[in-house]
Amino acid sequence: MMYDKHKAKQNAEKRVKELKGYYRHIIVFIVINGFLYLLKVGALNSFLPDTFPRESYYYDWINANILIWAVILVVHTLILQRHKFTFFKKWEERQIQKYMDEDRGKVDKYK
Q: So what's the pLDDT on residue 45?
């Protein structure tokens, strides 16, 4: 197979775009959840208006938010690194070969 420079450049550009999106996701995760955590622990109370709720039970959802978002970030990481997980591709190739060998065995049996 010939090396297609144009296709290689497109693939590289796609990977860079995915990587930029991933880094953006990490930054947004840190900024938003950092702010929410500071709000939860009361570190921002001096900056909040007096009418803003300060009771800790108002912010119980923040831990769940951070956990769920962290799981989503892990999934994003796995998707980004999918080309490094060759186990599934090799497993798929082994299964294909196994079934091809089985079919060949059935055909050879009746020759």
A: 86
